[in-house]
Amino acid sequence: MLIILYVLCIQSTLFTVTATNTANNFITCLQNERDALLQFKSTIIDPNKNLASWSSGNCCNWRGIRCHNITRHVSRINLRNSSLQGEINPSLLTLQHLIHLDLSFNFFNFKPIPQFIGSIKSLRYLNLSNAGFSGEVPSSLGNLSSLHVLDLSNLYLSLSSDYVLHVSDSQWLSQLTALQNLKMTGVNFTYASSWLQDLNSLPHIKILGLRYCRLQTIPLVLPHVNFTYLNFLDLSYNRINSTIPAWLFKITSLEYLDLSWNFKFHGLVPPDIRNLTYLNVLVLSYNSIDMSLALSQLGNLRNLQYLYSDYVRKLINCPFHELGGNFSELATTLQLLSLRHSKLTGSLPRWIGNFTNLQFLYVSANSLSGEIPSSLGQLSGL
Ligand SMILES: *[C@@H]1O[C@H](CO)[C@@H](O)[C@H](O)[C@H]1NC(C)=O
Ligand SMILES: *[C@@H]1O[C@H](CO)[C@@H](O)[C@H](O)[C@H]1NC(C)=O
Ligand SMILES: *[C@@H]1O[C@H](CO)[C@@H](O)[C@H](O)[C@H]1NC(C)=O
Ligand SMILES: *[C@@H]1O[C@H](CO)[C@@H](O)[C@H](O)[C@H]1NC(C)=O
Ligand SMILES: *[C@@H]1O[C@H](CO)[C@@H](O)[C@H](O)[C@H]1NC(C)=O
Ligand SMILES: *[C@@H]1O[C@H](CO)[C@@H](O)[C@H](O)[C@H]1NC(C)=O
Ligand SMILES: *[C@@H]1O[C@H](CO)[C@@H](O)[C@H](O)[C@H]1NC(C)=O
Ligand SMILES: *[C@@H]1O[C@H](CO)[C@@H](O)[C@H](O)[C@H]1NC(C)=O
Ligand SMILES: *[C@@H]1O[C@H](CO)[C@@H](O)[C@H](O)[C@H]1NC(C)=O
Ligand SMILES: *[C@@H]1O[C@H](CO)[C@@H](O)[C@H](O)[C@H]1NC(C)=O
Q1: GO cellular-component terms in the record (predicted)?
Q2: Is 224 in the pocket of ligand 6 (CB under 6 A)?
């Protein structure tokens, strides 16, 4: 009996594997969803005929469409980079089991993101990056409580405010309680003063990309730092006029931290930076900060491979070759060290020859003098 069961079990496993491989060929799509997709196509301008397959037959086989292998519902639409224009049809609302919608790298004529997208409640992945949307991001997106990934990044940076996305009130972001990955490059947050408090209530957030968001403020005090899983934080190219807030150094899960190109971050970077022991990439360049307390502590960051601290106000208080603390602990990990234009004096230290994994060393535009140490010759990966 057991042997028979075992054989049956193996056979059914084999069958499942075969069925999955060719799944979408066999699944026939549901009539009402097929009609909804045709309606979607009818308001899209498709100069490159990327939707040519969207006409007859099984819609589960159309370009960019995936259906669930059992329920047959359309579950994914991926029309990334398809030169699409025109209107996004509300017929998408018929697709109540859609979990993945990617319309990135198209050109929707600088119209606003349609409000009804916030009603496709099944969505887990929404990518509208560089799709030519502008205007206020609809707060209805806050209803997407299953969303794991939201990408609204926009690279149309040089254009006027008529051509960018805006978030004036970020409160709706705090409702996206399943969110893990938020990318908002280029979205105008000028008036969204509670952005940090709103993001702090996302319990699962791992990735926060807020580059070029015109952020002006960052709270110095954050009573409860909730960012338990945050490992990627990019706040570069904003206009934050502040000292580096101490709560940042409580986010010990951070692996990637980029605060560069704000120009207005100022003051002493606290030695507590040594608490971020998982940090792999640290980018602090182009700020008015003083690193003289922090730099000698970085030896504690046993995973640090990339350190950028260019164009800062002050790096150290002493000649470079006298840099103490435990910076030299980084010798076995550091691959890139960039300390350009930061008023370094003294000479290039002999101990730099111990940084055996170094591939890039930038120390130009400082006031270094003296002998170039022969230990540099040990850096065979440079
Ligand atoms: C359907 O897909 C799921 C997930 O991709 C898979 O685990 C399951 O085995 C598939 N079922 C069939 C009958 O193909
Ligand atoms: C879009 O597609 C074109 C050609 O198909 C390709 O050259 C380009 O790199 C793609 N762009 C992106 C962002 O994927
Ligand atoms: C969104 O789509 C673009 C390509 O169109 C891709 O580069 C990017 O990684 C996607 N974002 C996410 C978060 O998956
Ligand atoms: C969320 O959805 C509800 C109905 O499902 C709607 O009444 C509400 O306006 C939506 N919220 C937002 C912020 O749009
Ligand atoms: C950003 O938003 C602010 C406030 O609405 C506005 O004054 C500014 O012009 C906008 N800038 C851009 C480039 O969108
Ligand atoms: C921390 O996250 C929890 C769960 O999402 C939330 O209830 C709480 O309000 C958050 N705390 C703060 C200070 O935002
Ligand atoms: C930063 O803000 C302070 C006031 O808080 C102000 O005095 C100073 O001029 C600002 N600095 C810059 C560069 O905007
Ligand atoms: C950094 O760690 C030290 C020692 O564990 C602790 O006393 C200090 O409060 C931490 N700093 C921050 C900002 O959490
Ligand atoms: C680096 O120095 C700090 C303070 O001087 C110390 O707490 C830490 O343990 C040192 N780390 C290593 C790896 O030596
Ligand atoms: C560099 O390493 C050598 C041996 O590996 C060691 O003797 C020397 O003290 C180190 N130099 C510095 C400045 O850490």
Answers
A1: membrane
A2: yes
**By alpha-carbon position, which residue is closest to atom 10 of ligand 2?**
81
Measure the CA dihedral 338/342/346/351, to 10°: -20
| Probe residue for ligand 10, chosen from 323, 329, 330, 354 as the CB with the greatest number of ligand atoms within 8 Å | 354
Ligand 9, residues at Cβ distance < 6 Å: 274, 297, 299-300, 326, 329
DSSP state of 331: G
Alpha carbon distance 275, 303 (integer Å): 12
- Regarding the beta carbon of 188 and ligand 5, being less than 6 Å apart is answered yes
Atom 13 in ligand 10: residue holding the nearest Cα = 351
How close is the Cα of 365 to the center of ligand 3, in Å?
37
Q: How far apart are CA 347 and CA 318, in angstroms?
A: 11
User: In this structure, which residue's CA is closest to atom 9 in ligand 2?
Assistant: 81
Rg (CA), the chain: 26
Q: Please tell me the distance between residue 241's alpha carbon and the centre of ligand 7 in angstroms.
A: 6
Pairing mode, if any, of strands 232-234 and 287-290? unpaired
Query: DSSP label at 382?
Result: -
- What is the pLDDT tens value at each position of the chain, 382 positions in all? 444 445 444 444 444 433 444 445 667 899 999 999 999 999 999 999 999 999 988 999 999 999 999 999 999 999 999 999 999 999 999 999 999 999 999 999 999 999 999 999 999 999 999 999 999 999 999 999 999 999 999 987 656 778 899 999 999 999 999 999 999 999 999 999 999 999 999 999 999 999 999 999 999 999 999 999 999 999 999 999 999 999 999 999 999 999 999 999 999 999 999 999 999 999 999 999 999 999 989 999 999 999 999 999 999 999 999 998 889 999 999 999 999 999 999 999 999 999 999 999 999 999 999 999 999 999 999 9
**Are the beta carbons of 115 and 72 closer than 8 angstroms?**
no
Closest to 65 measured CA to CA, from 91, 28, 105 = 28
Q: Taking CB atoms and a 6 Å cutoff, what residues make up the pocket around ligand 3?
A: 80-81, 104-105, 127, 129, 149, 151, 181, 183
User: How far, in Å, from the CA of 354 to the mean position of ligand 9?
Assistant: 18
Domains of the chain (ranges; CATH) run 28-98 (3.80.10.10)
